[in-house]
Each structure stands twice: as C-alpha cells, then as structure tokens.
Design a protein that fits this description.
By secondary structure, the chain is an alpha/beta fold. It is built from nine helices and 22 strands. The protein folds into two domains: 181 residues, FAD/NAD(P)-binding domain (3-Layer(bba) Sandwich); 139 residues, D-Amino Acid Oxidase, Chain A, domain 2 (2-Layer Sandwich), CATH 3.30.9. 24% of the residues lie in helices and 27% in strands.
C-alpha cells in the first residue's frame, strides 16, 4: 500500500462495537475500519456465547439492551437472512445460603418463581436436593453473534465503507485537525477517530497522547461437554447460578458451560486456564446428575469493564476528534444496536435516538472517568 488513505472517520477495531458503529456512520460519512487481526471479530466478539437478557447489567446497560430489542427481534430484510434471536429462557438457580441473591433477582421485571418440580421438568437432570429456589425469565433469548456481526459488516461495505485487516495501530498523531494513523498496512488519516479497540482501548488512548479511562479486561472461560447418552438438552433454558458462579446452556445438542470467571488480565490473545475449566465442570456436576469424563472444547474471551460497569461512549475531553466506544463488559453484543446508533449520533453532532431519551449520557460519557480538561490542539 502506498500513499495515505483518507476518510471522514477512522474506526479502530472491527469487533461488534467497531463494525456496528462503522455501519451506522457509513450512511453519512466516508469511513475506514481498521482491524489488527487477519479477520474481524477474532477476540471478544468471536468468542462470545451471547444471550439477550433484559435484566442483565446495571441501569444504563439494561436501557441500552431494551433499546436494542426491536432491531434484534425484527432486523431489516436486507440485514440478515435468518433470525437473530431464538427462544431460550433463563432459569436462575439458588442454593443454600444464596437466598438474598434470589430475593434480589425476584424483584426484576419479567422473572417468575418456579417450584422445584417445575424446574426439574425443564431441566430433567437438575439435582433439586441442592436447590432452595428457582426463577424463570421467559423473555431471555439466544442471540446469533456471528449473524449480527456479519450483518453489520455487510451493511458497512454496501454503504461504501472500507475494511482493512492486518492494520494494527503502530503510531498515532494529531496534526492540523486530522488524526494520522500508522499501521502495518499503511497510513490512514481522518479528522475523527473512533476508539472501538476493546481490551486495547486504553492503550490506544495513551498512544494518542491521552489518558486511560481505567478499563479492565477480564478473562471469561467456556467449555463444551456432552450430556449423558439419550438426554436431549436442545430445549433446555440457560441455567445461571444466582451467585453468578456458574452457567450452562444447550449448544448444538451439547452443553456450553462456564464458571463465570472474571479474572483481570492484560490485553492479549487470552487462553483458558485448566483450573477454570475444571471449576466449571465441578459446578456443573454439583447442579446436574451428570459425570463429565471429557471436555470436548475449551476457550476464553475478554470482557472489558470500566470501574462503574457502564460503557464508555463519547468524545474524549483531552483529545480533539477522539471518540470512545469501549468498556461494554459482558453486555456488548446484546446492546450493540443501540450503542452504535447512540455513538453515530454523537459523532455526527445529532441528538440521541428517541428511544434513548431516558439514558443519562453523563453516566456513559468518558468525562466521568477523565475529567473536563480541554486539550490544546496540535499544529
């Protein structure tokens, strides 16, 4: 590649956040989407076992999730040729000593108590002698991450956007009202840079001459095991321990399970730890009448959190033309449509979408983490 590729907006990171906001922005701007890996979605997006659960996360997350529901349930005809959501339901299971956590969940809209026989009917292997209470959230849905991500990338390309893979950022410089980005694939320039770099978002801000907002990447482990012979798990709900110490759900006739770990790690190509896989299996065997003799597949992904658990969306108060779209935690897939629309509106200097009128923008803006000092622009 020779010369400098210019655009109106550069989006760094082609995971779900970057792909979705790039697709929204490409309707009105010339957008270049830069991805460090050979394929978009290699890290968090490609390793997510997402559900659409309205009661998941804090208040801003729940509002953004609800605002994403219509798009996920009824996507445009040209966006995807298959449903993005499939009925699944979530069953929250409490054991002795977890009564308070169960009572807290019971106050959330959309949950209903189940008797232990009813719970056993939905999950026939459930060890009800280990359980003191169960709640069901029937509206929870399984979300097709790959189809959603590919839909946004397709929409981006159709709008004229350009995706550049193997374009890891090596240098950043703001000069004369433009960001110049040096990558392994060449130079890119635009007046606006959107930081959708996931676990690397803080590092990107520091490279740009700004400050980190204090994001923490956390490892989440998952594994696949087979159910006992003759047991059909395809219609089971997802099962989550109310203490958020285990979850499992059907996955192509088998069980996907996790110890729901959240171990802080540096940004990296994260790999599963044997201890976490063994812990997931142990907790599964505590709840189900099952003996796991072999783990068929295991992996880990990164979920990146701000200190208050809310996403970071808005203009950096210290870097001109530098926009944050990061810190989605474990909720980035289910709230991606609303986050993308919000971010695109703010970049374009438009009011937020009407269905996000109830969102406290100060609660997601990077100002809350960085303060209000306005930088001196370079020449």
């Amino acid at each position: 590649m020779t010369g400098i590729i210019t655009a109106d907006v550069l989006v760094i990171g082609a995971g779900m956040a970057g792909a979705s906001v790039a697709a929204e922005l490409a309707r009105d701007f010339q957008v270049a989407l830069l991805e460090r890996e050979e394929h978009p979605g290699y890290h968090s997006t490609g390793r997510s076992a997402a559900m659409y659960v309205k009661n998941y996360g804090n208040a801003p997350v729940r509002l953004l999730t609800a605002a994403s529901g219509e798009f996920l349930d009824r996507p445009p005809a040209d966006f995807v040729d298959q449903p993005l959501l499939r009925p699944r339901g979530v069953m929250y299971v409490a054991r002795l000593g977890q009564e308070q956590a169960l009572a807290s969940l019971a106050t959330l809209e959309g949950t209903e108590p189940l008797t232990l026989p009813e719970a056993r009917q939905r999950v026939p292997l459930l060890r009800i002698e280990q359980v003191i209470g169960v709640l069901l959230e029937t509206a929870a849905m399984e979300l097709d991450v790959h189809a959603l991500h590919e839909g946004y990338l397709r929409r981006f390309r159709q709008a004229g956007g350009q995706l550049h893979c193997r374009a890891g950022v090596e240098s950043l410089e703001y000069r004369a009202g433009h960001w110049r980005v040096g990558t392994r694939s060449g130079l890119f320039e635009a007046p606006v840079l959107v930081n959708a770099a996931g676990a690397w978002a803080d590092e990107l801000a520091v490279l740009a001459g700004g400050r980190a907002v204090g994001l923490t990447p956390k490892r989440r482990t998952a594994a696949i095991v087979a159910p006992p012979a003759g047991v059909d798990v395809r219609h089971w709900p997802m099962v989550i321990g109310v203490a958020e110490d285990v979850y499992f759900r059907p996955e192509v006739g088998k069980l996907l399970l996790s110890p729901a770990d959240a171990t802080p790690v540096p940004p990296c190509d994260v790999q599963p730890e044997e201890w976490d896989v063994a812990l997931a299996v142990h907790r599964l065997e505590e709840l189900l009448e099952i003996e796991v003799t072999r783990v068929e597949h295991r992996w880990a992904g990164l979920r990146t959190f701000a200190a208050d658990g809310s996403p970071v969306v808005g203009w950096d108060p210290q870097l001109a033309g530098f926009f944050w779209l990061a810190g989605q935690g474990g909720y980035g897939i289910q709230m991606a449509p609303a986050l993308a629309r919000l971010a695109a509106a703010l970049v374009a200097d438009r009011p937020p979408p009407g269905d996000l009128a109830g969102l406290d923008q100060a609660g997601v803006d990077p100002h809350r983490l960085l303060g209000d000092r306005i930088p001196e622009t370079g020449s």
